Amino acid sequence: MNKTKYAYTVIKDRILDGTYAPGQRIILDQIAKEIGSSHIPVREAIRRLEADNLIEYRPNAGALVLSIDEKVYKQTLEMLAVLEGYATKLSIGHMNDEHIEEIKAINEDMKECLQRYDLNRFSELNKSFHFAIYSHCPNQLLVEDIRASWEKLDTVRSAGFAYFPMRAPYSVEEHDQLIDLIEDPPTNDAVEAFARQHKLNTLDAYENRA
């Protein structure tokens, strides 16, 4: 891994896991020292993170970690609805019985998490469920765009299922319906439409949260 990519990964991971909080200044000297490089790779990494809308560079202040506001969160969910619907459509022709059993097992684990009210684990399994489908998508650029958007949403603490738990039971029911459609699709477009609406239902839950 080259120095720019390494610096990018280090900073991005710290933003996404909360080590760097919104508004915090990124100290270029510190990062350069940590990765054993000059400032040049770190500056390039900062530019990439600006393009990802994770950092804003301000004169006299430097590189500051951005938070995602509600408007951006909603728009990201709307975009994901389109991307995930299409990725699911592309994936179904590459899934066999074993792959379908895998997503069934994940969804059953999600139901068990609901019984224990373990919503953090539920959220992790929800991501695993969908990416177990996308792992069969032949368009990996599309999958990477989806992954980047999920990571961006992870920086918004209010985005988690723990903040609108009433959505969770409906989500696993919709997963069951999606599995049925993948097993026996009436049309590929019908699968795409359902997967897209599944994501939009999450947006509805967010907007209607108590």
List keywords for this structure.
210 residues, Arc Repressor Mutant, subunit A, three-stranded antiparallel beta sheet, 9 helices
Outline:
With 210 residues, the chain is mainly alpha-helical. 69% of the residues lie in helices and 5% in strands.
Task: Provide a descriptive summary of the structure in words.
- There is one protein chain.
- With 210 residues, the chain is mainly alpha-helical.
- The chain folds into two domains: 63 residues, Winged helix-like DNA-binding domain superfamily/Winged helix DNA-binding domain (Arc Repressor Mutant, subunit A, Orthogonal Bundle); 138 residues, Four Helix Bundle (Hemerythrin (Met), subunit A) (Up-down Bundle).
- It is 69% helix and 5% strand.
- The protein has a three-stranded antiparallel beta sheet with strand order 1-3-2.
- Strand 2 and strand 3 form a beta hairpin.
- Helix 4 packs antiparallel against helix 7.
